[in-house]
Amino acid sequence: MATIKLFFRPSSRSECEGALYFRIIHRRKVCQIHTGIKVASTYLDQREQGKMPPGDDTECRLLRIRNRIESVVRTLDSSSMGYSARDVVDKYLEVDAVTGLISFGRKLMGEYESMGKENAADHTRTVINSFMRFYGKEDVPFGEFDSTLVCRYESYLKAEGLCPNTTSYYMRRLRAIYNMAVAGGYTPHGNPFRTVYTGVAKTVKRAVSIDSVRQLRALDLSRSPLDAMARDMFLFSFYTRGMAPVDMAYLRKKDLHDGILTYRRRKTSQQLTIKWEEPMAAIADRYKNDESPYILPMIKPCGKDERRQYLSASHLINRHLKDIGRRIGLMEPLTLYVARHSWASIAHDNDIPVSVISQGMGHESEATTRIYLASLDRARLDKANNDIISLLDH
Question: Which residues contact 273 (CB under 8 A, 6 or more apart)?
Answer without folding.
Answer: 260, 261, 262
